[in-house]
Write a structure and sequence with these properties.
By secondary structure, the chain is mainly β. It has a single domain (2-129), classed as Mog1/PsbP, alpha/beta/alpha sandwich (Protein Transport Mog1p, Chain A, 3-Layer(aba) Sandwich), CATH 3.40.1000.10. 14% of the residues lie in helices and 50% in strands. It is built from two helices and ten strands; from the N terminus they run βββββαββββαβ. It has helices at residues 51-61, 117-124; strands at 2-5, 9-13, 17-22, 25-30, 35-43, 69-73, 76-85, 88-97, 100-109, 128-129. Strands 3-4-5-9-8-7-6 form a seven-stranded antiparallel β-sheet. Strands 1-2-10 form a three-stranded antiparallel β-sheet, with no helix packed on it. Strand 7 and strand 8 form a beta hairpin. The longest helix has 11 residues, at 51-61.
Length: 135
């Protein structure tokens, strides 16, 4: 396992996954090319982000998700939902810990839906807050 570390968060990256960073977005892909995980980091300036704020944001920003589930992944908690659009299976997470908000998406072909979901969940379950949570 490798450690994928940003100023705001860290996770364990299995050897079969590759990460690339661009500004506040980290793209993680598996070597077999089945899907892509994208983590966008945002930091609030008004204290800890609440579950109500996460739910409200998810409902507003992702109306295509029919049902949101409460999740806890590592040190972060929030909501997760999924949908299919234009032949792609998409899973979204809105997670927070203190003032750090992670918007995470996983995208793969509809026919590959669920193939990497266990590995993605295991990876995201290693999420911890980084050393510099405030921007």
């Amino acid at each position: 396992m490798n450690i994928l570390e940003t100023d705001q968060w860290c996770l364990l990256l299995p050897p079969e996954w590759i990460a690339e960073r661009e500004d506040d977005i980290v793209q993680i892909t598996d070597r077999d090319g089945v899907g892509e995980l994208e983590i966008t980091t945002l930091c609030g300036d008004a204290g800890a982000i609440t579950m109500d704020q996460l739910r409200s944001m998810a409902l507003e920003e992702s109306p295509e998700v029919a049902q949101w589930e409460t999740v806890r992944l590592g040190a972060f908690e929030g909501v997760s939902g999924e949908f299919v659009e234009d032949g792609a299976a998409i899973v979204e997470w809105y997670l927070a810990k203190e003032a750090v908000l992670l918007y995470i998406t996983y995208l793969c072909d509809e026919e590959d839906a669920g193939m990497d979901l266990a590995a993605i969940t295991d990876m995201l379950s290693t999420l911890v807050l980084g050393d510099s949570p405030a921007l």
